[in-house]
Amino acid sequence: MAQTPTAASSYPPEDEREIKNTIVLFDVDQTLTIPRGKATPPILALLSALRKKVPIGYIGGSNLPKQQDQLGDAAGTDVRNLFDYCFAENGLVAFHGPTSLGDASFIQSIGDAQYKLLVNWVLRYIADLDIPVKRGTFVEFRRGMINVSPIGRNASQEERVAFEQYDKVARVRQTMVDRMRAEFAHLGLTFSIGGQISFDVFPAGWDKTYVLRYLPEERWATVHFFGDKYVEGGNDYEMIVHPRVTPHRVDSPEHTMRDVIATFFPEGYVEEKA
Ligand SMILES: [Mg+2]
């Protein structure tokens, strides 16, 4: 992966930036990018300008390679050079610059026997589900969670959009989550509906607030967080309502840009041309 040699050095050290004891964190899908899409050059330029004033990071549910695709610039700069903190898989895979802060695993947490019962239940439930289309990859195992999709993660972009619309009325995901919550109450799991076609299942407390353990209050008095799934049940909700967090409820990357400019560039913002 090509590196921009000046990427890291063009920012002051974190504690010498203008806005003190503060970090600004962003969700990825629909906050910095369209769902599964790439960040546009204007939002990357704004993030770079913001980073000169205050340390920044992102928290996304996907893995780091996917986030590299979505948040990397045209030059292919390592995403860990574009943000001070990178929190992949909701923070279970955490980096401060190039330095790994740790990782955790779902199976380690609940054990293989319980995990198998859970996956068997999911596959049986989806097999009996009557929805307009089904594709493939109904359960995706990730380090810190399982991602369950009634339509299947192999669905095309068009099929994803159609399912999201259908699900708003049919509430396929919400109904399934309610059933699972009752069935597996003893496992202490959290269910989070995010994105267009799926929901995440993970141990309680392993939502996006997991990252706060890496951002001690003594060092980071103020934590800003921008997220689009800010309604209860959405995957940004726990961060949005957390007492340590200054919330920014946004509905699109354009909305994020307007809010960032209004909040952090009171003097006005002019995009710097590279
Ligand atoms: Mg989002």
Shape: globular
Relative helix content: 25-40%
Low-confidence stretches: 1-8
Mean pLDDT: 93
User: How many beta strands in the DSSP annotation?
Assistant: 11
The biggest beta sheet reads: 7 strands, mixed
CATH class of the largest domain: Alpha Beta
Q: List bound small molecules.
A: magnesium ion
C-alpha end-to-end distance: 20 Å
Which structural category do the helix and sheet elements fall into? Answer: alpha/beta
Tell me what portion of residues adopts beta-strand conformation. 15-25%
- Give the spatial strand order of the biggest sheet: 5-4-3-2-1-10-11
Following the backbone from N to C, one meets helices and strands in this order, namely EHEHHEEEHHEEHHEEEHEH
Number of domains: 2
Level-2 CATH architecture of the largest domain: 3-Layer(aba) Sandwich
> What's the alpha carbon Rg, rounded to whole Å?
19 Å
The CATH topology of the largest domain comes to Rossmann fold
Number of helices: 9
Determine the CATH superfamily of the largest domain.
Answer: HAD superfamily/HAD-like
Describe this structure in words.
Strand 3 and strand 4 (93-96) form a beta hairpin. The chain has 9 helices and 11 strands. The longest helix has 16 residues, at 112-127. The protein folds into 2 domains: 22-104 and 208-264, HAD superfamily/HAD-like (Rossmann fold), CATH 3.40.50; 106-203, Hypothetical Protein, Haloacid Dehalogenase-like Hydrolase, Chain: A, domain 2, CATH 3.30.1240. 36% of the residues are buried. The protein has helices at 41-53, 64-71, 79-82, 106-110, 112-127, 157-170, 172-183, 237-240, 253-264, and strands spanning 22-27, 56-59, 85-88, 93-96, 99-102, 139-141, 146-148, 189-194, 198-203, 222-227, 245-249. The chain has 274 residues and is α/β, with parallel strands linked by helices. It is 32% helix and 19% strand. Strands 5-4-3-2-1-10-11 form a 7-stranded mixed β-sheet. Helix 1 runs parallel beside helix 9 (253-264). The protein is globular and about 55 Å long. Residues 27, 29-31, 228-229 line the site of magnesium ion (MG). Homodimer. Its EC number is 5.4.2.8.
